[in-house]
Amino acid sequence: LLTRRRALDESDESSGSSNGIYEAGNEFSLSVPVKGMEQIVKDVGSISGRDCSKFQSDATTSLVKEGCAHKPQGMSDNLSNRQRKKQKKNSIKRNGILGLVPVPLGSDDEASLEKSDLFAIKGTIAHLRCRVYALLGPQSSDNHDAINKNDSSANTSMQPAVDEDHLLIMAEVVDAYVHSSYWDSNKLLFRPMPKAGEQTVPPYLSFFGSQTFGYVVPSYEDM
User: Distance between CA 56 and CA 71 in Å, rounded?
Assistant: First the structure.
């Protein structure tokens, strides 16, 4: 899950072109979700941040905590898949995504988050702070030239692009946090490692695309 530093009630549209968000030097965060967060990941990818804020309002968050918001408002059981997706998007625009809660990097305490902080997503087990150094795609010639500024022989007429609607962000990880139950301190590996007293921990997710997930599960051979 990718997030960037901004006011949580803003849509990307209010900030102008989304390309500017990821200009060289700007930062964003990546959060690694676990089993049980599949629907949140799908919902985040189902709508653009240009259209609305994906985060819940205070009122919607209160309903979730009280157990009163199991189904998005206005959803009906007697709909085609296309109608259901449209209603789901409209519900997200009105209410935000259920369960999508910002927290500070390296923490799961939403109360300590400042509005302007770079943030992660509650319930995730690893957070990466990343810094953009180039943007490849449509209208990205400046970034492409920046990559090749030390290579006079580079063919700068070549403009890598995913497609007309997507950009390729090139960034480096400058800081990282991981829950202790997902860090193998002996082998310095990121993997599920239940601690003493823990029978198991939820596997973390790997997204294969087309709404398909893989699960990284604990290995008990070295425990």
Answer: 14
Q: How far apart are CA 170 and CA 146, in angstroms?
A: 12
**What is the phi/psi pair of residue 59, to 5°?**
-65, -45
Alpha-carbon gap, residue 86 to 80, rounded angstroms: 10
- CA gap 27, 11 in Å, rounded: 17
Q: Count the residues in the chain.
A: 223
Residues in CB range of 140: below 8 A, 6 or more apart: 19, 134, 159, 161, 167
State the DSSP code for 56: P
132 bridge partner residues: 171
Q: Chain-centre distance of CA 36, in angstroms?
A: 15
Q: Would the pTM of this model clear 0.85, i.e. be above it?
A: no
Q: Which amino acid is at 85?
A: K
Instruction: Report CA torsion sign: 54, 59, 64, 68.
Output: negative
Q: Which regions of 57-178 does DSSP assign to beta strands (E)?
A: 102-104, 119-121, 126-136, 168-178
The pLDDT tens digits of the residues spanning 54-101 come to 887 654 444 444 444 445 445 556 777 777 777 777 777 778 888 889
What is the CA 101 to chain-centroid distance, rounded?
11
The encoded tokens of residue 195 equal: 């601690």
